[in-house]
Amino acid sequence: MINWKNGHLKVDETTLSEIESFAKDYMQFMAVAKTERETVTQSIKEAREKGFRNLDELEGSWRPGEKVYFENRKKSVVFAVLGQKPATEGVNIVVAHVDAPRLDLKPRPLKEDEQIAILETHYYGGIKNFHWVSTPLALHGVVVKTDGTVVEIAVGDKDEDPVLVIPDILPHLGRKIQMSKTMDEAIPGESLDVVIGSVPLKDEEKEPVKKFILKLLNDTYGITEADFLSAELEVVPALKPREVGLDRALIGAYAQDDRVCGYTAFRALLDLAEVPEKTAVVILADKEEVGSMGNTGMRSAFIDKFLSKLIALTKPSFSPLDLYEAWNRTKVLSADVTAAVDPIWKSVHEMQNAARMHYGPVLTKYTGSRGKGGANDAHAEFLAQVREAFDKEGVIWQMAELGKVDEGGGGTVALFMADRGADVVDIGVALWGMHSLFEVSSKLDVYYAYKANQAFFKHLK
């Protein structure tokens, strides 16, 4: 008989202490990893401190226990601990994405209107526009100058920093222009313009506020208006991770979809106590929120290149068939968040197959929408192996679907890994407020996602 219940009724004080310690580390990581670039940079920094080396710098042949990473354009990265068996025998992968819904600056973003300097944006991923108005915002990213100089910008998150904002209209004047419309129409994407300044440059008649902002940018960062043409600047919430609830059992933070799965996978790999039988791999990928397109997303060849490099350590001259066979022997956890039952909105869930806070990470046999459209559907044999691994290590976990059959749905990168021939199942931490500016997770679920990944690396053959 299935007897899932709230994990807080199962754990002892020692485990609770471990949960709190892990949550503290996770929140510190999330405070500095506000973009996919920052997440990749921070994870590589922490990995190198644990002895990981760039795969391209590796000399010699296969050495079990060797720790390597493979960076892809500063937006995605693969980490691995080489196992006792060569890569031709397949590897065990946990893959998560580290991009998140946000507002990207347009190529020519800066303009002045009514003596206010604003930045025009183009939203990235599935957002609710109304989440982004009248809330403190930060600006993160890079500007690349024509001489190759990379200028990093991060403003809005320190206590002493100014923040940006998208002002909303007051309710007194908003009845016709906004409040009589649907939520989808009330705040159009083109109105998500960010206020960046309001002081005019003296002795300038044309666009004096814009020119003052350009002067500030040049004085501070050495950039010009033309440099926006080769920039990747993201508007993100200027919010710190916080404990939620008087019992402090929950975590609120931006971009937990899907950096919570990325972090728990990454830490599981860093903390491996023994050399795994099969090589343990963690992929932190980009572009999932827009379909995994581009050469940093999971539809691209960078992961095939990585696996090929591993195969070449033991078989320098290998055929395409060797790569195919390696994929066919590979096991994958596609780690992405799902929806936890919110008592306010529980009507969208079929309660017997719904995920709950504090019940552990959620195994999901299939995602997709309605008739499993666009889904990977995990094989029963593989699910049984994963269940066994979790149970051997005492992992608290649950199994669920994403909402009622006809309610909607969603997808992950699982199908792209399955296309390569691997066995794949989805797993993730359940959230409230997914794709909002302040997503909420359970500390217990975050910790047991970490433990589930460790069990997977240890026991999957």
From TrEMBL:
Any GO molecular function: zinc ion binding
Known EC number: 3.4.11.-
Keyword field: Aminopeptidase, Hydrolase, Metal-binding, Metalloprotease, Protease, Zinc
Cofactor(s) the protein needs: Zn(2+)
Enzyme class: hydrolase
Annotated GO CC locations: cytoplasm
Keyword Zinc among UniProt keywords: yes
Domain of life: Bacteria
SUPFAM superfamilies (alphabetical): Aminopeptidase/glucanase lid domain, Zn-dependent exopeptidases
Family annotation (InterPro entries): Peptidase_M18 (IPR001948), Peptidase_M18_dom2 (IPR023358)
Keyword Hydrolase: yes
BP term (GO), one: proteolysis
A Pfam entry, by short name: Peptidase_M18
Family from the record: Belongs to the peptidase M18 family.
Entry protein name: M18 family aminopeptidase
Organism: Coprothermobacter proteolyticus (strain ATCC 35245 / DSM 5265 / OCM 4 / BT)
Higher taxonomy: Bacteria, Pseudomonadati, Coprothermobacterota, Coprothermobacteria, Coprothermobacterales
